[in-house]
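Annotated sample (chain length 177).
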Amino acid sequence: MILLAESITSAIIHAPQELIHLTTWLFTLKDHEYRACSSAHIAGGSSVSPDGKLLSLNVEMVGGNLLVQHYQEEISERSHCRVYSLSDSFSPMGHTKLGITWELQAVRRSDKETELINHVMVWMTAEFDALLHDVGITDLESIKSRMTESLAGHNQEETPRFAQDIEQKAQGGIWLA
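Output written by the structure step:
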């Protein structure tokens, strides 16, 4: 698979790692909480796939593309959550699919601080390749550059807000177990 864009951003959560549960956070995030984490977030929710996997459903506008994401769990741990979506992308070029991997990690920095690492990767699909061919775009490097810039800006906005939401919940003790 061809990697089109990648962004890694981190933020500090003022709570011990032991009080954080990233997988539970992601799959219980309410619509209004998701929308509060970025001006690009339109809607968010959760569900379960027919095979019993947890799903995070998100709608957002990034770089002029309306993305409808159906993230399915791949790694579901307290301090590490990775999901993948074959996402619908609607842009002025048309409708296509993009593969998106979203990975969150909570890394202990001290007894009172945890670093949230938000890692997003966008992957080429056969549908996206066909769309580029259909509209006559052959310069994949310029597409990659624009996508990376848009993704980085989006990630820089949402990551500290995700960290704040996680921090508030961790400090409230909702994941004690």
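Annotation: The chain has one domain: 3-171.
Annotation: The helical segments are 22-28, 31-36, 126-134, 140-171.
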